[in-house]
């Protein structure tokens, strides 16, 4: 499994200390520091306690930070922001095996054989140890130290609220508005759609405090459900493609494929659920502009975006 769903543990994230009185640079620094603080706390848990759940928190923090860099990059030093995002992506990839095995165990534990679950747990713990070693390396610490020093120097004039509104407009428009377009998507396109949903979800969490009289909570909840459904669909795609875990005996891999296929809802059912959630999103008010939502007939076309690997 090359990508994992994110369990509902994001509530551990401290609120971002931003307000409508900030300029763009101040907002960027506050959001990026929040992400770095989350990452630092989770890294400590991994390196000192071998906490496998903290691996997930590290990956969430890295993802949030990469999205923040993509969001604000054009307003600050875009070239350096892109370089920082690439470095963070490499770090996230180094943590992926431990988290992916953890997700597998969570999904199959009730029905899987004791032998399979125990063996996966051993492999997971080995990967957690490798992840802890990676996070404790001097070059990892140096990368994050340089990143914090860089972001503390970033300045950008202009009021934060109009910048935030335009960003949310842009991210909203990137989601599909036609049912037939969703049905025609292959597994890779559906995975990229999940990244777009995640990007909008995190941007909403970052920027909601800027709009003092708006209620972003229903929108965040809707996006979280949409992201979860798309994650399930991705897990099923991996299962049907013949997922295999290195160092796992062939009979265990056969059991694993059967379990994942059995546990997943049908692709058609999931696509219908995703379609309904996308329709609700299309017709929901743009809470940051206090107006009714766009419909299929009135939405402008989405502009291309190359920052979906966050």
From TrEMBL:
Annotated ranges, domain CHAD: 21-293
InterPro entries in the record: CHAD_dom, CHAD_dom_sf
Disordered: region residues: 288-310
Gene3D superfamilies according to UniProt: CHAD domain
Pfam families reported in the protein's UniProt record: CHAD (PF05235)
Protein name (database record): CHAD domain-containing protein
Source species: Novosphingobium nitrogenifigens DSM 19370
Record lineage: Bacteria, Pseudomonadati, Pseudomonadota, Alphaproteobacteria, Sphingomonadales
């Amino acid at each position: 499994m090359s990508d994992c769903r994110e369990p509902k543990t994001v509530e551990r994230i401290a609120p971002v200390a931003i307000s409508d009185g900030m300029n763009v640079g101040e907002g960027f620094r506050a959001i990026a520091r929040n992400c770095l603080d989350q990452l630092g706390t989770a890294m400590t848990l991994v390196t000192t306690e071998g906490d496998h759940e903290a691996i997930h928190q590290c990956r969430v923090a890295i993802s949030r930070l990469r999205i923040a860099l993509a969001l604000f990059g054009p307003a600050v030093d875009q070239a350096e922001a892109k370089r920082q995002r690439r470095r963070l992506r490499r770090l996230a990839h180094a943590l992926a095996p431990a988290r992916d095995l953890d997700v597998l165990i969570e999904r199959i534990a009730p029905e899987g054989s004791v032998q399979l679950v125990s063996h996966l747990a051993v492999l997971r713990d080995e990967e957690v140890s490798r992840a802890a070693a990676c996070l404790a390396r001097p070059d990892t610490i140096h990368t994050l130290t340089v990143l914090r020093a860089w972001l503390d120097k970033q300045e950008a004039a202009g009021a934060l609220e109009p910048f935030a509104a335009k960003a949310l407009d842009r991210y909203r428009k990137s989601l599909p508005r036609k049912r037939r377009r969703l049905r025609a998507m292959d597994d890779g396109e559906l995975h990229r759609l999940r990244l777009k949903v995640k990007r909008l979800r995190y941007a909403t969490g970052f920027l909601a405090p800027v709009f003092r009289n708006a209620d972003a909570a229903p929108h965040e909840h809707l996006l979280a459900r949409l992201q979860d459904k798309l994650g399930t669909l991705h897990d099923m795609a991996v299962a049907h493609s013949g997922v295999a875990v290195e160092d796992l005996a062939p009979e265990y891999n056969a059991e694993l494929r059967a379990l994942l296929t059995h546990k997943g809802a049908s692709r058609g059912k999931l696509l219908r659920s995703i379609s309904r959630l996308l329709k609700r999103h299309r017709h929901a008010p743009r809470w940051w502009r206090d107006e009714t939502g766009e419909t299929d007939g009135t939405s402008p076309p989405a502009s291309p975006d190359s920052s979906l690997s966050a």
